[in-house]
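Q: Could you fold this chain for me?
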Amino acid sequence: MKNRNPTIEIVPPAEPGADHVNPVPVSEEVLVRARAIAGEFPECIWFWHPEYTIKDRGSIVLLIRHLREYGGHRAWWAAQELWKCL
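A: Sure. Below is the predicted structure, expressed as structure tokens.
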């Protein structure tokens, strides 16, 4: 994308889950709830290492995305609840 106006900086859109570059912290209550939800729906996060711990906003967003994609109705509602906390 060519920038025709030098006073405006064009920033390419971030890749989904790009929070790993600059992790955004979240409150301890949200982390505890996200970890509990991840424990309730392990089939949605099958790709995570068994010792992985949710520690920032990026991993919560990834959890929400996979709850919605791979979980049923209960997982979708849990994802909604978690999304409202961010």
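A (continued): The chain has three helices and no strands.
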